[in-house]
Each structure stands twice: as C-alpha cells, then as structure tokens.
Design a protein that fits this description.
Elements (H helix, E strand, L loop, with lengths): L3 H9 L29 E4 L12 H10 L4 E8 L5 E3 L20 H4 L22 H8 L4 E6 L5 H10 L6 E5 L2 H9 L3 E6 L1 H6 L11 E5 L4 H8 L5 E5 L4 H9 L4 E4 L2 H5 L2
Parallel strand pairs: 1-2, 1-9, 2-4, 4-5, 5-6, 6-7, 7-8, 8-9
Antiparallel strand pairs: 2-3
Length: 272
C-alpha cells in the first residue's frame, strides 16, 4: 500500500511532470541495450514508477525513460477479447480507470474509450489517457531500454512471443510470471525468462533447480535473509528484488547480494 509519507518524500524531489509528455521517435537505433549490457546494480521502474506517475501509462513510462533513473522499464500485460494485448495490471478496470468490468470483455475498439484515472496523490500534473497496447509500448521503448513484461494472462504468451521476436527484442525483453510452469514455457518460446516469487514461496523454493531456464529470479524484499541468500547462491545469473520503495530496504537487499532493485520510486532510490 502506498503511504502518504512516501509520496510526500517523492514530491519533495521536485519531480515536475508536464501534463503532456513529448512523444519519442519510433524505430530502433544502433547500440541498443540488452540484458547483457545492464550495469552490475540495475534499477527497474516498476509499472513505469507507480509512485511517480500513473502506473502502466504511456506518459508514465515515457517520463521514467526521460528521467533516466531506471535502466529497465517494467509493465504488465492483459489480453482483450479479440486477442489484442494491452498494458494493464488488474483483471478488471475498476481500480485505475473511470470504467468498470473485466478487461477481457473488451475489444480493441472498445479499449480506445478507456481512460486511466490518475491518483491525485501523485506528484506533478497528469491527464486521463488510454492505456497503451503492448505493441505501442514495444515500438516506443523496445531497443531503447531493457524491458520487463509480466504476462498476466498465460494464454497470451504465444502472441506476446511473436511480437517480441518480430521486433528483434529477444535479448532485451524479460517475460515475467509467478508460475514455474509458465517460466518454462517462456524459455521454450526463446525468450528471456523472469520468475517472481513471494516471501512465502521462497521459504519452500529451491531455485538452484531453475537455473537451466530462468534468466532472472525476482525475489520479495520481505523474505527471510536465509531464503534470499539461497536465491543469490542458486546459480541463476540475475537476482533482483521487488518491490523496494525505501532507501533502507534498497540497502538491505544490496547487502544480501541482489543485483537489481525493482521499485515504484526509481528517482527517489537513485537520488544521492
């Protein structure tokens, strides 16, 4: 849950955000970042930085890109009734938009009438906007930032994989899930696999058995130290922590050996 004190702390950083963020040019450039070019300590803007901008919005992702505090942009995906993939977290529209009902009940044409409802506690000025499609997000940020994309609907994976392959982004997009069997499927589809686990799951997990198909293990910062150390020693190349929103939690996770910080407040956690 977002606390008002944390939001106040972020606002103090003077994150002045224009009501309309300038569009980025489309088309990839040479020397694109990939998973292999990430720094030793990597910061991820979770849902675009959900304490700094409307979550999973194009304007929020663009602002996170332009600020440059995070080397990785994160967003969620859902599939509409007609198979269109959109950037959205919840199974229903109720929490973050002016609409209600299941996301899966809409078509692409109907999706264009959905408007995000900006949280009034966010710093800066934000206007209602339609959440982007996954294609729009990949076209705008693919090849400019490494991305982590959580496939909320596992049956969308073949379509998502095709979109990533078509754009030549297989080395710069991690596909995330909480389910081990879905992670195996992601790997079989030739994609970078991200598997996130809760503190409760990590008590029983033996992640060294996943190193053959998991490229990124995404661990709950609330987990016990012994469970986090087991994850770090698993042999999986990348172990990052979610969702870390305070400097104290950041420092703890780095001390325990995590190489990435997934945060709703990337500017706060990277400001000296």
């Amino acid at each position: 849950m977002v606390t008002r004190s944390l939001l106040t702390g972020i606002a103090v950083l003077a994150l002045s955000v224009p009501a309309a963020v300038p569009a980025l040019p489309t088309g990839r450039r040479g020397g694109s970042p990939t998973a292999d070019t990430l720094p030793t300590i990597t910061f991820v803007a979770h849902r675009g930085g959900a304490l700094e901008a409307p979550e999973n919005s194009m304007s929020g992702l663009t602002a996170a890109f332009e600020r440059g505090a995070a080397q990785v942009l994160d967003f969620d995906t859902r599939m509409l009734r007609d198979g269109t993939l959109v950037v959205f977290h919840d199974a229903t529209l109720d929490r973050t938009t002016y609409s209600s009902g299941p996301v899966r009940s809409l078509t692409a044409a109907q999706w264009r009438s959905v408007r995000l409802r900006p949280d009034p506690r966010l710093p800066g000025a934000w206007r209602p906007e339609t959440p982007p499609t996954v294609g729009e997000a990949l076209d705008r940020f693919g090849g400019r930032r490494v991305l982590t994309v959580e496939a909320k609907d596992p049956d969308s994976l073949p379509r998502l994989a095709a979109m990533i392959h078509e754009r030549g982004l297989t080395r710069s997009v991690f596909v995330n899930s909480n389910r081990v069997e879905v992670a195996r499927q992601v790997h079989r589809l030739g994609l970078l696999t991200q598997l996130w686990r809760s503190a409760r799951q990590l008590r029983e997990d033996r992640p060294d058995g996943w190193r053959g198909f998991v490229d990124l293990l995404d661990v709950d910062y609330r987990a016990r130290p012994e469970d986090l150390r087991r994850a770090v020693r698993s042999g999986i190349r990348r172990v990052w922590a979610h969702t870390v929103n305070t400097p104290e939690a950041r420092d703890r996770m780095l001390r325990l050996g995590c190489g990435g910080i997934i945060t709703d407040a990337p500017t706060l956690l990277t400001t000296p």
